[in-house]
Amino acid sequence: MHAVFLRCLFLGAMLPQSSLQVGLPATVLNCCEGDIFLLLDSSGSLANYEFSRMLLFAAELLRPFSLGRGHVRVGLLLVGTKANLEFGLDVHKHQESLQKALQSVRHLQGDTNTVAALRMVQQLLKETDKTVPKVLLWLTDGVEPGDVDTPMTELKAQGVSVLVVSTVHANYQVLKRAVTPPLQSHLYSVDIDSINIIAEDLREAIIKIIRAERLSVVHLTSHSAVLQWRPVLTADSGHYELSYNSMFKTDKGNRRTLSGDSSWIELTNLHPDTTYTAHLRPESNQRLLGMLSVNFTTLPDVLTPAVVSVSDSGPHQIRVSWAPLQQSRVQRYTVEYGAIPSGHVRTVTLNSQEDSALLSGLEPGTEYLVTVSALHMNGKEVAMSVRACTQDVLPSLADLQLTPVEHQEVQVAWKTHQEGVKGYWISWERQNSPSSSSKSSAYLSPTAHSTVLTNLALRSRVCVSPVYNSGLGDGLCCTAESHTDSLS
């Protein structure tokens, strides 16, 4: 007889898991942002069967939510002789992890010290983000909960919403004082075998508290804005009506209809440095949803040229570039440049599609003032200047001679114009085999003025360049006409 009772008890604990499955809108997955602390009675006043049923109920209640920061965080505190923190708010970031943890929770037994557990909840919530809504869901049989009035009042004063689910043994007056209004959606008294019937209503009550119904501006420029929201519809359940206008209604209002699976939109052709208000209304035949609103101010206008840069600098040229490129708003660009302090000023005119100009015929080692001007379609002219220096002309090698030494060997000798040389860079072609050769190079010290090259390839080009702090000077090259003594 005893064995039969255990089998029935086991089946009773397992079967409700499937019966607790309810139809859920897909939008619940990304609907909310908030912290939910489960306060689960694990004292000896609950039978193991009741405790298991409460765990199954909590698991199914939370299953639809997306977890983690920016979504829903869940913590579990067990009530026994002592408060036992099963896991904190930042432990589970995925449903698989949360569901596995809930399946492994063990019944504590012992006394019902709810007050100690509430004090621990208070302390834990003090360390969390104050801007995120918080829910305390108390699952209890309600038997001798203790003097919970004071800690519950303090929690509610912290902005915590208290919801209670109790079995029929509950002290209704104590629980009534504990919950946050409205009572009809925040306080449930139900037989443990029928607890699944309140799952959908309780979930909706929680969602109302932590739903992140915010219309946010995630990117702004002087002429555009990207709005983003958490989806509350699906493609089949309705659509969104978006309207936006400047706060002072200086332009005609704009309206758009967006599909139900939309979650962002980019507004373009806005006025710079202007405050706008936008309204997003979800339209659905299934339920009434509130309108979302946001105000934002576009950035001040950025007129080209806002950035001017110099590159490709050489002894006789520099390249000047500018940004942003605004072809539809610019008539032409003008580049003026002259040596500082009083050099001749030259001018280059370019069309609106150009964003750079190569300035050539410059003096080496000279500082220039370069001014880029843009004539805009509205007649306004914007200019920006930059200083740029051309590179010095590095002295070249004065003389280079090749003298045969032995078969496939040659002595290379050279002279330089002036001091300041940091070394020499020599390159040549080496004979590897009768049918192959390879290029070789070497750096020689500034005191070296000659070297001997071996295994020289037929008609090898031998080049030597002086090395200065700022780069290589012009080098000289000679060609070996033969392996023996015919060199030029």
From TrEMBL:
Protein name: von Willebrand factor A domain-containing protein 1
Residue ranges annotated for the VWFA domain, each copy included: 35-206
Signal peptide: 1-20
Classification via Pfam families: fn3, VWA
InterPro entries noted in UniProt: ECM_Assembly_Org, FN3_dom, FN3_sf, Ig-like_fold, VWF_A, vWFA_dom_sf
Domain Fibronectin type-III, first and last residues per copy: 211-301, 304-396
Higher taxonomy: Eukaryota, Metazoa, Chordata, Craniata, Vertebrata
Subcellular location field: Secreted, Extracellular space, Extracellular matrix, Basement membrane
Keywords, ordered alphabetically: Basement membrane, Disulfide bond, Extracellular matrix, Phosphoprotein, Repeat, Secreted, Signal
Entries under PROSITE patterns matching the protein: FN3 (PS50853), VWFA (PS50234)
A GO term from the CC aspect: basement membrane
Native source species: Echeneis naucrates (Live sharksucker)
Function comment: Promotes matrix assembly. Involved in the organization of skeletal muscles and in the formation of neuromuscular junctions.
Main localization category: secreted
